[in-house]
Design brief:
Elements: H1 4-7, E1 14-17, E2 23-27, H2 34-45
Antiparallel strand pairs: 1-2
């Protein structure tokens, strides 16, 4: 369990943590459309939001 104060999130915040324990994304507070935000953060953390290179 990660302490919320040390991670810079509030009681309603969230973290996306990679398997190597690097914080890939965080939000300090709850967001209106959490599933959409989490999906976008996951795509970004995996590098899927970058344009394809030729």
């Amino acid at each position: 369990m990660w302490p919320t104060e040390a991670c810079g999130i509030g009681d309603r915040g969230a973290l996306l943590v990679r398997p190597d324990h690097v914080i890939a994304w965080r939000t300090a507070h709850a967001v209106p459309d959490a599933l959409t935000v989490l999906a976008a953060a996951t795509r970004q953390a995996r590098g899927l939001d970058r344009p394809a290179t030729p």
